[in-house]
Every structure is written in C-alpha cells, then in structure tokens.
C-alpha cells in the first residue's frame, strides 16, 4: 500500500533487532511516514520520528503514553494515525519476575501492553488502518516449530497466567520459557479477539518472524543460553528454521506497509499467510482474555 499523504505509524520494540530494521525500512521506503516510537529508548534519529518514553511493563505508564499519542493525533501534532505495530517482546529466566502492577512481566509486556495501547488508540485510527502484533511460532508447542528449545504453552485462566508463579517450578528457566510461549499464544488469541472489536476497515494481523538469533529477546536469559544462541544462531539462519534480523525486519515492514497482503485475523509466518495453531482458535478463551484485560 502506498501513501500519498502524511500518516503516522506507532510502534513498540524499535530499539534493536527486527524492530530497528523494520522502522528504518518503513521510514526509508515511505517519505510520507511519521514514526512514533513507544518504549524506553528512542528509535531512528529523524525529524519524522517522535519518541514517547514509556515502560511497557507498567500499565499506567503505557496507558498514559497511549493517551498522549491520541492527543497528538487529535490536535494535529502528528499526521493521521493508520498503523500500530506491537513488536515489543521479552523473555525471562523464570516465571516470577513481577511488575509494579503485580503482574508476571512476560505476560505484561507481550500481551497486556498491546491491549492497553490498542484500547487508547482505537478511536484515533483512520479507515484502512492496519495493526500488526509480533507473535511467535513457539505458540505451536511442537518440535517442528521450535526445535524443542521452548516448552509448549500451558494455558489456564488469564487471571492466573498474568500473575507470577503460574507454571511448574516457577523459578526455573523452563518456566520462564513456558511463560514466553504461553504469552505468545495469548497474543494470537488477542489478535483474534480484537478482529470484531475494531471498526470496519481496521485490520489486525499476527506476524511470526520465526527464530531470529541475535535479537535482544534473550537478554534476560542465562549465559549458557546466550552462548548457545551465539554459536548456533549463524548456522541456523542458513536453514529454513531461522531467519536474520535483516530479513525478518524487512518482512515486518512489508506487512505493516501493506506490500504484503493479509486479511484481518490472519497469521503471517514470515512472508506467508498460514493457520496459527489449532489451539489458538478458541472464541471462549478470547472472550475470557478480553474480559480480564479490560479489568486492568
């Protein structure tokens, strides 16, 4: 999709990895694009970038950031808002890391922050807007999709998943990885739930970049895990099992811009529209998740 007038892309997870690549690509390819970066660190240096400082693990800080962006859109300080990219993601070495709100940090950043920002921005999105949420094929929980590097999701009620200690041996690295895969399943559910909540003409899509070695995702992982990824990463990117930050960032940019065609609710695996896991299609779960998130 090409734009002939100024428009705004709001994006999280821009400071490194595929987000940094995608943000730079979106600005370079579209001279009409203005980028609003939400997070703790600024994105690309450009007069077409606005930085909104926010800790995405803090609900009130995230809500305040969303309100601020809405005000900027409403008073004309930024061009019309027609893109939101929820790319921020985190993984911990346990399932007990707790936010200021008492939530488990993985769930807070990977799920809650996206919902909070969408809730604040939805009324400011113009017709033909596109929302892209970065998810992960770890939500499948099988050998083919994650090489047994990440345990399968372990779903339970959202108010349980959102709290520290939701998984077996919660202080273990395995629990931390389970929290990650489960949060990514929740993110796919979130996308499905938002399809019907959005105005007609506003699309929301899940994007799976695949395994991308060298990003900041595992910055809270132990030294052993980080070393393994440094050694295996370059090898894996030579296979269909993994991709580079450059490739994944370009694919994300193409999906955000509309060069890659997809319908609302679709799951895009790198550059292909495919089905997400069978488990991820569950209207009852989606309704329960939305109802819980709306209480926060």
Please render the helix and strand layout as text.
Layout: E1 7-12, H1 17-29, E2 33-39, E3 49-53, H2 59-74, E4 80-86, H3 105-121, E5 125-134, H4 143-146, H5 158-161, H6 173-197, E6 203-208, H7 223-236, H8 245-257, E7 267-269, E8 272-274, H9 283-293
Parallel strand pairs: 1-2, 1-4, 2-3, 4-5, 5-6, 6-7
Antiparallel strand pairs: 7-8
Helix pairs in contact: 1-8, 2-3, 3-6, 6-9
Provide a descriptive summary of the structure in words.
It contains nine helices and eight strands. The protein has one domain (about 5-290): NAD(P)-binding Rossmann-like Domain (Rossmann fold, 3-Layer(aba) Sandwich). It has an eight-stranded mixed sheet, with helices on both faces. Helices cover about 40% and strands about 15% of the residues. Strand 7 (about 265-270) and strand 8 form a beta hairpin. It is of the alpha/beta class and about 300 residues long. It is globular, with a radius of gyration of 18 Å. It has helices at about 15-30, 60-75, 105-120, 145, 160, 175-195, 225-235, 245-255, 285-295, and strands at about 5-10, 35-40, 50-55, 80-85, 125-135, 205-210, 265-270, 270-275. The two termini are about 35 Å apart.
């Amino acid at each position: 999709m090409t734009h002939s007038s100024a428009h705004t892309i709001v994006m999280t997870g821009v400071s490194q990895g595929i987000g940094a690549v995608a943000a730079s690509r979106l600005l370079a390819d579209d001279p009409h694009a203005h980028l609003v970066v939400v997070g703790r660190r600024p994105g690309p240096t450009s007069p077409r970038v606005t930085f909104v400082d926010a800790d995405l693990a803090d609900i009130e800080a995230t809500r305040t950031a969303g309100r601020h962006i809405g005000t900027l859109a409403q008073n004309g300080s930024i061009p019309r808002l027609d893109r939101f990219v929820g790319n921020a993601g985190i993984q911990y070495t346990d399932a007990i890391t707790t936010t200021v709100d008492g939530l488990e940090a993985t769930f807070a950043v990977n799920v809650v922050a996206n919902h909070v920002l969408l809730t604040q921005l939805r009324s400011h999105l113009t017709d033909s807007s596109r929302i892209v949420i970065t998810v992960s094929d770890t939500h499948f929980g099988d050998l083919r999709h994650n090489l047994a590097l990440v345990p399968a999701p372990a779903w339970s009620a959202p108010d349980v998943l959102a709290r520290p200690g939701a998984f077996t041996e919660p202080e273990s690295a395995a629990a931390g990885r389970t929290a990650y895969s489960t949060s990514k399943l929740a993110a796919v559910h979130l996308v499905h739930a938002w399809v019907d909540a959005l105005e007609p003409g506003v699309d929301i899509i899940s994007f799976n970049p695949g395994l991308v070695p060298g990003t900041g995702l595992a910055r809270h992982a132990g030294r052993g895990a980080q070393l393994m990824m440094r050694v295996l990463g370059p090898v894996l990117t030579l296979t269909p099992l993994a991709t580079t930050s450059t490739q994944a960032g370009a694919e994300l940019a193409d999906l955000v811009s509309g060069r890659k065609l997809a319908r609302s609710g679709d799951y895009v695996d790198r550059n292909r529209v495919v089905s997400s896991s069978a488990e991820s299609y569950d209207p009852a779960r989606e309704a329960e998740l939305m109802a819980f998130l709306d209480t926060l």
